[in-house]
Amino acid sequence: MANSTSTSGNLKDGLQLQWLGHASFKVNSPNGKVIYIDPWLDNPKAPPDAKPVKNVDIVVLTHGHFDHIGSAVEIASDTNAKVICNFEISLYMKSKGIPESNIIGINESGSISVDNILFTMVHAEHSSGITDGDRVIDGGTAAGIVIKFDDGYTIYHTGDTGLFSDMKLIASLYKPDLVMMCIGGYYTMSPKEAAEAVKLIKPKYLLPMHYGTFPALSGNPDELSKLIPKTVKTRVIPLKPGEIFS
Ligand SMILES: [Zn+2]
Questions:
Q1: Residue 92 neighbours by CB under 8 Å, 6+ apart
Q2: Angle formed by the axes of helices 191-201 and 167-174, nearest 10°
Q3: I need a labelling partner for 239 at 20 to 30 A (CA). Which of 37, 48, 126, 206 fits?
Q4: Residue 21 C-alpha to ligand 1 middle, in angstroms?
């Protein structure tokens, strides 16, 4: 992280989120664990020091598309990280030689506690096929992930998703303080739908993601900010790839 700049908010002590471009985040938890969410560290916007990954405790995957699991096999092979994913992706990870003892396959509404951090898989409206050479393997159902730290602070990565009204249930059940939300359009919500999602969830902080990687993902944080009503107090934090929010 030597070259990284950082932005400060009123985040939990010790919690840091670094955007690695696209939907990839490195999270340093308040209890000192390192979590990678949807690591695709070869994405066109990834910071130059994103690789190699040396220190990681947990990798979390929302779905099987290459731009989300891109670096997961490599990281899990090179480190002793636990991998949390859906059941079908867990079978894929096993088939790639990742030790079974390090793979945790759950599914929507399922939770698992690892290192005193609670991971819950939640709904997303998307697909999840895994590209393997010239084949597409069934990657189960796409999901989002809610991460609750040992002190109760909660963050939610939407994964790739369209808008759905049950985001309101995710908000009332899990009360995320911070949301990493897809806003680029084309494959996911654009700012128009994301602004509705913000109204349903009303997090304190929103880190936009899944935009700007390719020209097709044209939604941007400015458009989103303009569409959020003044009565909703969510603070949109547009990070640059490599930047840390702490
Ligand atoms: Zn996807």
A1: 64, 130, 132, 137, 139
A2: 40
A3: 126
A4: 14
Give distance in angstroms: CA of 40 to centre of ligand 1. 12
What would the pLDDT profile of 58-108 be if each residue is shown by its tens digit?
A: 999 999 999 999 999 999 999 999 999 999 999 999 999 999 999 999 999
Omega prior to 215 cis, within 30 of 0: no
Cα of 188 vs centre of ligand 1, distance in Å, is: 8
Distance from the alpha carbon of residue 187 to the mean position of ligand 1, in angstroms: 7
Q: Domains of the chain: which residue ranges?
A: 13-245
Amino acid found at 81: A
Q: How do residues 141-164 score in pLDDT, each as one tens digit?
A: 999 999 999 989 999 999 999 999
Distance 170 CA to ligand 1 centre (A): 20
CA of residue 128 to ligand 1 center, whole Å: 6
CA distance 65 to 208: 19
Rounded distance, CA 67 to CA 42, Å? 9
CA distance 146 to 175: 9
Which are the contacts of 173, defined by CB distance < 8 A and separation ≥ 6?
none
Residues whose CB is less than 8 angstroms from the CB of residue 39 and which lie 6 or more positions away in sequence, other chains included: 20, 24, 53, 59, 70, 71, 72, 75
The CATH fold of domain 13-245: Metallo-beta-lactamase; Chain A (3.60.15)
For residue 139, give the nearest of 51, 44, 64, 57 by alpha carbon: 64
The first and second tokens of residue 24, run together, are 């990839």
